[in-house]
Amino acid sequence: MKQLYTLAAILLCLEVVPASAKETGVAISGVFPHFNSSGLTSPSNGNVNTSTSRLIAKSHYVYDGSKLAAADSFSYIYSAGRGGNPDWEDANDDNVNFDTSVTYMFKYGYAYPSVRRMQTYNQQGLVASLWPQTWDGSNGDWENSKQYYYNYDNNYLLKTTMKMWFGGGWNNSLDYNNSYIYSPFRLLAMLNAPGYRRFFDYDANGNLVMSYDQTIQITGASQDNELDSFYYDSVTRLSAKTTQVHDSTTGGWMFSEHWDYDYTGTDSDVQSAYKLVWVNNAWAQSEYHIYTYDANHNMLSDLAKKWNGSVYVNASLTEWTYNTYSQPLTIVSRSWDGTAWNFATNDFTRNFYYENFVPTGIANLDKTPMFLNLYPSPATDVLNFGMNWEQPQQFNVAIYDMQGHVMKSWSENAVKTYNKQVALDGFNAGNYIVKMVAANGQQTTKMFTVNR
Fold it and tell me: What are the structural domains, with CATH classification, of the chain?
């Protein structure tokens, strides 16, 4: 379930991530990356993953009117025991503790590199810096644009600094800073950014009850933008949210939209949600959502209905699948065509790929009986395999593109140590998945990238 707020993009160079009233709580995003927590008490910079499974790639396809066309794909490389889980409610990857991530965009059926992001961490495992670079096709190399630095106090984010690349170097005079102020109970009270502020207020139980934002003019005067009010039931479940927008003419607040959330018994999962919009000084029906979950409280479906003036009619259906670690495998969005659920323009699918690993802090834990190394990374013309089994055994190898098509596949006789070089003829630039399956059922997957 996701209802997006609107955070004002007060500076074009600042990246604004929408916040959301999530089914699992309320998350407020900041103006910079890595301020996107599952709750306001502890801004998170990475999700400590103890499941021994971590995200290595994801791909996104959008229906263009005739087919699902590849839109973009992401790859992730980690060091040591880092990992991370994608959020089924949130498309960004602030909760993935990668060292390097590469984004490929697709156009006319071809993939091309777009953004490379590199991260460093402090001793507590929180992100200390984020360094995104953009691909310069004319020079065939990565170019600097900005860097982010994160400062903490007792693991609470206090300040974020964005440095800009200008004139061949990092220009300190162009720094932009976010600061974060907390209440005595370590709840976020204010986010302060260049030209922008957001305030937060809580009840005695620490539940967010109000949030509003302001744009700061060059003169120093503040302009109110949007106010969100949150309401809870007797067991502190989010029961309603009302959004108001500032009326610059009257100086007051005008209603904009309202959500009501329904539950079954004492279950914490939202079963349905109603959206009302403010029209002609009255609330009017707008949307109705029905949600389903699995036994682990993972959302399986979001059925959205629209009000047509007399009844709610089917509009869209989003469905999720998960692996045994409750990590999303697929997200599929379809639209109602009057008789059935089919893909319509801008519907999408997202695919997620994982590998097993040994998380930091878990000793003597190894659920990956094969150890696979792929190099060079990124690859160009050839890919080298280096792999060791615990015991010699036969196995099959397959290389998939991000659409699930098999690019190459072969079988190998029983060996304990395996080395092989594979030609990448016919491989366009992009991300690919290697899957190895042994005769005894053991398997592993790993992602690699091809640059052309």
Answer: 51-144+304-363 (no CATH), 371-450 (2.60.40.2550)
